[in-house]
Amino acid sequence: ILQISAPLQFLGFLYRDLRQSLLDLDFLFNILITRPSVKDGHIELQKVGPGMKIQAENLHFRYRSSRKILNGVSLTANPGESIAIVGPSGCGKSTIVKLLLRFYYPELGTLFLDNIDLQLLSQASLHGAIAIVPQDTQLHDAVMQMPRGYNTIVGERGLKLSGGEKQRVAIARAFLKAPRLLICDEATSALDSNTEVEVLKTLKDLSSGRTCIFVAHRLSTIMHCDKILVMDNGSIIEEGTHKDLLSRGGTYANMWSSQELKEKREPLPK
Ligand code: ATP
């Protein structure tokens, strides 16, 4: 018995190894044969001006789960306009941006860029026309502090950048690209108030003439936008300028007064 137990044990290991390898192969083949759910289109956006027209009509969307995330969202941004999307965490703000970038298709509804159905546009022309500014930004001055300014070489063989510096370079790149649509996702969320004022001024100068979409929590950063959309639970519940929305005395006005109160109680670090 002792003589055959070792080979039997070995066969047992071999069997388990073989079974795991076959399962891994099956998983791999499933990935390889999965067709991308988002297809590329063939129409190119024409550079007709510095801004772009955005139109979303009746967008409905859910991720794989059954919960509805967008429930009939419509919005329009004319070339050169800046619009802001505000609302509580999880209400669907970034999901609108993801649909606009064609990461997903809406379940129902249509998106048009310059009056062309987003689904028909080529990925290359989408990438060429849109830039995204991520969180926590500082702009031009930070780049100029590097020895070679905008000619600084980054990447494996170049300067090693910290996470924050990488973000700043991403901003600089976004602007050098001269995008016709600029998407800013909480661009000033974690900045102290002095830096915030500088960043907002730079963003304002650089975004002039372009169409801009700001996704924001802090209302002070978006109060000058041409249009503010207030979302709740997958729907736009209020729409107007800062002044319109304050005089309406609804959700936005409440958000504004509670943020003012909070900032008075907990001022940002200088
Ligand atoms: P925040 O202000 O916190 O960034 P948001 O309003 O931008 O929130 P979204 O990011 O659009 O909200 O998310 C809306 C809802 O969809 C949330 O409940 C979120 O958990 C869910 N969600 C987001 N991405 C996915 C995903 N890839 N798969 C499944 N659910 C998701």
From TrEMBL:
<protein>
    <submittedName>
        <fullName>Uncharacterized protein</fullName>
    </submittedName>
</protein>
<feature type="domain" description="ABC transporter">
    <location>
        <begin position="54"/>
        <end position="258"/>
    </location>
</feature>
